[in-house]
Design brief:
Elements lengths: L22 H5 L12 E15 L18 H15 L5 E8 L7 E6 L5 H4 L5 E9 L10 E11 L15 H4 L10 H23 L3 E2 L5 E2 L11 E2 L14 H5 L3 H21 L3 H27 L21 E3 L4 H11 L2 E8 L12 E10 L3 H22 L1 H10 L4 H10 L3 E4 H9 L18 H11 L4 E7 L15 E9 L3 E8 L4 H11 L7 H8 L5 E7 H9 L20
GO biological process, one term: asparaginyl-tRNA aminoacylation
Protein name: asparagine--tRNA ligase
Family: Belongs to the class-II aminoacyl-tRNA synthetase family.
Length: about 600
Amino acid sequence: MASEQAPVEMPATFSKYTKRVMLKIILGRDDGGVGLIGQSVVIGGWVKSSMEIRKQPVTPPPAAPAPQVVFGAGEYRVREKLDAVIRKAPQPSISILQVSDGSCVPSLQVLVNSALANPCQVMPTGTCVLIEGILQQPSVQGKHYVELQAEKILHLGLVDESKYPLSKKRLPLESLRDCSHFRPRTTTVASVMRIHNSLTWATHAFFQDHGFLHVQVPIITSTDSEGFSEKFLVTTLLSKGKKDDQISPTENAGVSVEAIRASIKEKTKKVEELSRTNSNKEALLAAQQDLMKTNELVSQLEARQKAKSGVTIETRKFDFSKDFFTRQTYLTVSGRLHLESQACALGNVYSFGPRFKAEKLESKKSLAETWMVDVEMAFSELEDAMDCANDFLKFVCKRILEGCVEDLQFVLKRIDKSVMERLQFTISSSFERISYAKAIEILRQVAGKKFQSKIELGVSLTEEHESYLVDEIYKKPVIVYNHPKELKPFYVRLNDDGKTVATFDVILPKMGALIRGSQSEERFNVLSSRMKELGLQKQQYEWYLDLCRHGSAKTSGFSLMLEPLVLYATGLNDVKDVVPFARSFGRANN
């Protein structure tokens, strides 16, 4: 007698703290979940799409003829109304839902009988469901290997279809920026977020595997880390002497006319887009009203500024000794200086956190708030930092190729057909290393190509110049080193020629400069001279100068903004689409 086959056990979920099975556990199996057919599971997620199938009404068997009864006029009218009510009973149906929980690309097909839940409640896109049911073979052959037959509805989060922004199909990424709190529910943004997550953990894995110590650097600082950057001022003095209810919304938020004008451009584009499609009149009306209110706000602010005779927040004089920190402070631009102090005690260190720049420009590759990896190594020179940056990029590209196959396949299909080839090429290629002077010389010799910006020594390479080097000349990643001292921060080491400094930029094909690094100046006299040359306030940097006064060591490192790396790994072209909540000039909606 053949032994009975042991039942298939449901594998553990990612976390014991959730009362559901993540869909990746079911759909991420090699068999697509077929081996789990017959299992009872609880799944939760959000409806991405749906359809309804009407059941054929069952014809009851003919009943025996009833005895003839004669009704009066009143009784006949009552019987007619009862028959009408019976005839209006809803026809049984099945709601077929495509449910996603954000753990993987594919969605699970769920069948919900109308006796269990009203179709108009469970079918709208965005509806949140927690359902218990049985996994079974698909009732209709298609792309699904398994489906769930619902037995219990444990939770139902309803949606107002008229106001839910994702009710439309295939919304462009640009329009999703206005509803950043919902856009992770789209397949594209969810895939990007999972790749973003993998790059974050790959970053930690690389440095931890190589003996680096992760340390935190301050977000609020009294030091301008680069010496010439646009910074966000941190102060409590704007509200001094005023009660909370006396501060207008625009004063409290620090809104400027320039920022609102920038938002008007975005809102005008949105109105024009909705007008062209003419598919959602309610959304168009709301956008037009929003634009009108924003224009009114600009007029009010301009009138207020005139009434103050030109006195604005920017021109006021503050006594920072009465401020919270008793001195002028900013949101940090870079963590390299603070990190160097840790490297001069702990060895090789890295930091991963938010950095801020108050640059009033629209850029597809930078944000006002960005997450940056800062690295600093003790007893290390420029070549060592270049080697580390090279190995780091190869490591993270390999990690996501191995760990994000499903998401990269989706990106390959929907966004960039060359993404996997590009990542593989980064891993296998050797990075070309050329000096800044050599790069200028090579670009000057290019025949038949006219660059928009003039190529000359002492001027920064533009994105156009960098792209031509990696895409047309070398056709692989390039590291440009030894830049003119005028182009780089004060703290980088001066080379023996007295004209260039020990710096490098890692430039990738189709991306541009992704990593910027340097060797720090450890000689006190040289560092002091550089600060004096640039007109920096020495008092602000006394703590940093102490590193050179007491036990200085040669250190080198680099900085990497995570968002452009996500662009490189996904093929998208705007960093606003690869972060959960983008902060850029004129935009901070939530």
